[in-house]
Amino acid sequence: NAGVTQTPKFQVLKTGQSMTLQCAQDMNHEYMSWYRQDPGMGLRLIHYSVGAGITDQGEVPNGYNVSRSTTEDFPLRLLSAAPSQTSVYFCASSSARADRTDTQYFGPGTRLTVL
Amino acid sequence: GESVGLHLPTLSVQEGDNSIINCAYSNSASDYFIWYKQESGKGPQFIIDIRSNMDKRQGQRVTVLLNKTVKHLSLQIAATQPGDSAVYFCAEKGGGSNYKLTFGKGTLLTVNP
Predict the structure, then answer these.
(1) Least CB-packed of A16, A30, A93, B106 within 10 Å?
(2) Tens digits of per-residue pLDDT, A13-38?
(3) Residues 29-68 of B with CB under 8 A from A
(4) pLDDT in tens, A43-91
(5) Do A43 and B44 touch (CB under 8 A)?
(6) Which residues of B39-71 are buried (b: 16+ CB within 10 A; e: fewer)?
């Protein structure tokens, strides 16, 4: 049971490039989410999903796309990278069953620098 | 407590002392609260949680207190150890079927040997 995995761990992009941050979980969790963490800002929610085929915007969705074709995977796409997207990105998952309130488990993060 | 501006609030304690980290939350409808620990270069790690129908919950060396009247949450760490040095975040979940967490800005705990 690997929990939540993220790849890559580090990435440097040039302004305007696109890329996909990968996230996978093996806990059969329905709920998955992406956060970005900037100094002094805590974690801010980018996008989330409550199940395969269902996604929604969080607090800071602009410049990012997501899809959820399977329960296990929740990739985050940067369409045209900007320096303001330099941050550490965390993926998280939890059970979304109505009879449980489960904590969110976080991946190790991807440190992204946009030049 | 919560951060102001770009600087994390910090708490510095001696090894063996008890630590208390505070958090003010924003949504009176929040029904679930979590404390996370984040070590440098790692993702947030679950410490302890509490539901809104409780005012206290204890774990191993940690206790969370919830005061809904003033929307305040605290994390108490007993006999603080150098390995407890990290940034601590509180998070709240909105009520009902809202699964989204809202995080506080964090408090940096430094334990001096």
Answers:
(1) A16
(2) 999 999 999 999 999 999 999 999 99
(3) 31-32, 34, 36, 41-46, 49, 51
(4) 999 999 989 999 999 989 999 999 999 999 999 999 999 999 999 999 9
(5) yes
(6) eeeebbeebbbbebeeeeeeeeebbbbbeeeee
